[in-house]
Amino acid sequence: MNITLCEVGPRDGFQFEPKLIPTELKLEVIQALVDAGLPEVQIASFVHPKWVPQMADAEAVCAGAPEGRAVYTGLALNQKGVERARDAGLKHVDLSISTNPTHSRDNANMTLDEAVAQMCGMVQLCHESGLEARAGLQCVWGYKAPGDTPIERILDMSRQIVELNVESLSLADSTGMANPAAMKETLRAVQEVAGDTPLVLHLHDTRGLGMANVVAALECGVTRFDTAFGGLGGCPFIPGATGNIATEDTVYLLDSLGLNTGIDLEAVAAVSRRMEAFLEKPFSGKMYRLVG
Predict the structure, then answer these.
(1) Using CA atoms, how far apart are residues 205 and 186, in angstroms rounded to an integer?
(2) Are 6 and 42 in contact (CB under 8 A)?
(3) Catalytic pick from 62, 126, 139, 235?
(4) pTM for the model
(5) Which member of 41, 84, 177, 224 lies 3.0 to 4.6 Å from 200 by CB, making a disulfide possible if both were Cys?
(6) Which DSSP letter does residue 109 get?
(7) How many other C-beta atoms lie within 10 A of the C-beta of residue 252?
(8) Taking the chain, what is the end-to-end CA distance rounded to the nearest angstrom?
(9) Which of these, 199, 213, 211, 117, lies nearest to 155 by C-alpha position?
């Protein structure tokens, strides 16, 4: 089984940090992550700098990222974002909408119908622009309470997105409410709908079940995961939310299962410790403290 990790720290991890991270430092982090063997890195979010000042240098980051070493992706939440990603030279774009009506209003000020319509328009623009689109669904395992997003809605939205001919379908446990049993139940149902479209998991470790959920997903045949060095990340609209599953923790788990990722655990941990010192805050990951 070949496992692919997409490092989202430079985007999801950085985006809501209050301390401004210089472009040069972001590029050094991206270089170090690529050197550590990460095959995919999400390097920017194309959103309005008024709302996410940390991503105001998205174009400069794309221009300065080392060439030919990894697949670079950027997050777009509307057609303007897709246009910016295209003009910045990216070939792979992550698109994301919520499955929960309350979260969709809180996070994007849209109804679910409006969100789906916008997703359709963004995917169409990607196709017209020669971009590869990975479409994502947020809060798949719940927003205010576990399971408050009905599985029927997840399947309906998944079906609509898969029919758009996207590269893959990403499912996000945005609030960290999933458990292994719920993970397997949802994945097996979505796999029936997704068919040959690969699934990607974007997991948060808010309740400490991130690694258990990775194992559950592996047992369902999922081979692609988003991770963030040190466990950085989170959402300001989700009280108490911690970051993504940590890249180092995930690599350690996979290696222990004989699923070698080719990623240098110590090199990623060095990045985490450097950014922990810069941001002056502890990260939620475990392994970055124990290696190197």
Answers:
(1) 18
(2) yes
(3) 235
(4) 0.95
(5) 224
(6) S
(7) 20
(8) 27
(9) 199
Enumerate residues 6+ apart whose C-beta is below 8 A from 262. Answer: 37
Looking at the chain, list the stretches that DSSP marks H as alpha helix, in order from N- to C-terminal side. 23-35, 58-64, 79-87, 101-108, 112-129, 151-162, 180-194, 210-219, 247-256, 265-279
Provide the CB-side half-sphere exposure for 238 (13 A, CA). Answer: 25
Residue 76: C-alpha distances to residues 42, 43, 55, 268, 276 (Å)? 11, 12, 12, 26, 27
Question: Positive or negative, the Cα torsion across 156, 94, 110, 148?
Answer: positive
Contact 169, 200 (CB under 8 A): yes
Within 13 A of 116's CA, how many CA atoms are on the CB side? 17
Average of pLDDT values for 152-173? Answer: 97
Is 235 an annotated catalytic residue? yes
191 Cβ contact partners less than 8 Å away, ≥ 6 residues apart: 199, 220, 221
Please compute the mean of the pLDDT values over residues 75-99 and round it to a whole number: 96
The phi, psi pair for 271, rounded to 5°, reads -65, -45
Average pLDDT over residues 166-195: 97
Q: What is the mean pLDDT of the chain?
A: 94
DSSP state, residue 32: H
Contact 45, 96 (CB under 8 A): no
d(CA 74, CA 94): 6
With tokens 């692609």, the residue in question is 224
Nearest to 133 by CA among 86, 64, 174: 86
CA dihedral 88, 199, 158, 122 (to 10 degrees): 10
Record the tokens describing residue 27, joined without a space: 């590029």
- Owner of token pair 């985490």: 272
